[in-house]
Amino acid sequence: MKIDVVKYIPQLLYRHDCVIIPGFGGFIGNYSPAMINPVYHTFYPPFKSLLFNIHLKQNDGLLASCISQAEQIPYEHAMELIRMMLENWNQELENKQELVIEKVGKIIKESDGIFQFEQDPSVNYLPDAFGLTTIVSPAIRRPGMQDKLEKKLDRYIYAPSGKSRKLARTLKWAAMIAIPVGLAVYLSLTNMDQIRSFQENYTGFLFSNSAPVVKKTVESSKILLPSKKSINPEQKIYAIQTLPGTQVMPVVKTEAKEVSDPSAKKPFAIIVGAFRFRENADNLVAKLKQEGYDAEIFDTTTTGLFRVSVGTFLSRDKAIGQLAAVRSTKYSSAWLLSK
User: Fold this and answer.
1) Which of these, 225, 264, 6, 217, lies nearest to 120 by C-alpha position?
2) Rounded-to-integer distance, Cα 20 and Cα 76, Å
């Protein structure tokens, strides 16, 4: 009479959390709590989830002893039956790449030799959940609450036209106010440098400590001009109307010239990269110079990064204009540094 060894594996899984098949692997059971699937409105009872560990191959005697006692055969005969069963299993894995163990699950052999185990969901090996089955409950419907929601939706959908016109008018005025306010904020942010320069240049003029000058119309007046020798060709002379008998020095206004100091560092720079090693920064500078950029290592950060620039500027407007041109090329991540 042929003895079926496979049927003893599910019997042992009901009573034990680990069942080892000698020379093949072991099945480990873990407790899993009850679950709810809100999409399908399904309630699952607690169950014992099974895992397969291929490294548990050492014989613990549990399966062979169970077969020996149930079939009234020697222990050595039981081990021989297990060995024959494993030969069949290995042959199925080699041929079909898949082994189905009844009431336990399915073992799939991957192309790289790894085993994947899928438990049979129709069997629950947790004794405490004996008799509990999966329950499917229909969705709970509340007609009264549904009617209230539909009435509220209809109230908003079919609202009177007067209210909608009033709302549209309010939105129109809000948009009209938001446009100039947003424009003013944008101009104040983009022209901050011009505002600072205006404050620095004209603060002394607006709040001077000198006495105010009172202009009076006098019949007899004369114009005092300096001699031609004392006039610098780069200076402009302004005539001043004075009272008789007063001595007034001529007011000479000198045009401001931009001092070009090659040693001075320009405050605005377009940065295209920052490197930890100086060699990498030098390589990028050489590459940028070949492409026609006025590239250089602008400075070094406090963390030791060498920042490479493609141009330095005294004016922020010129820097922003050049930044847009650089970003239109392959250096789209370029950014403006302000010292």
Assistant:
1) 6
2) 17
Instruction: Check pLDDT > 90 for residue 27.
Output: yes
Burial class, 52, CB count within 10 angstroms (exposed 0-12 / middle 13-18 / buried 19+)? buried
Segments making up each domain of the chain, as ranges: 8-136, 268-338
Give the pLDDT confidence of 179-224 residue by residue, as tens digits. Answer: 777 777 777 666 665 555 544 444 443 443 444 444 444 344 344 4
The CA distance from 116 to 253, in Å, is: 91
Report the Cα 186 to chain-centroid distance in Å. Answer: 27
Which two three-digit tokens encode residue 15? 């009573």
For the question of whether the overall pTM of this predicted structure is more than 0.70, the answer is: no
User: Would strands 35-37 and 42-44 be described as parallel, antiparallel, or unpaired?
Assistant: antiparallel
Report the 3 state secondary structure along the chain.
CCCCCCCHHHHHHHHCCEEEECCCEEEEEEEECCEEECCCCEEECCEEEEEEECCCCCCCCHHHHHHHHHHCCCHHHHHHHHHHHHHHHHHHHHHHCEEEECCCEEEEECCCCCEEEEECCCCCCCHHHCCCCCEECCCCCCHHHHHHHHHHHHHHHCCCHHHHHHHHHHHHHHHHHHHHHHHHHHHHHHCHHHHHHHHHHHHHHHCCCCCCCCCCCCCCCCCCCCCHHHCCCCEEEECCCCCCCCCCCCEEEECCCCCCCCCCCCCEEEEEEEECCHHHHHHHHHHHHHCCCCCEEEEECCCCCEEEEEEEECCHHHHHHHHHHHHCCCCCCCEEEEC
pLDDT digits (tens, 9 = 90+) for 292-338: 888 999 999 888 899 999 989 888 888 888 888 888 888 888 888 88
Q: Which fold has domain 268-338?
A: Alpha-Beta Plaits (3.30.70)
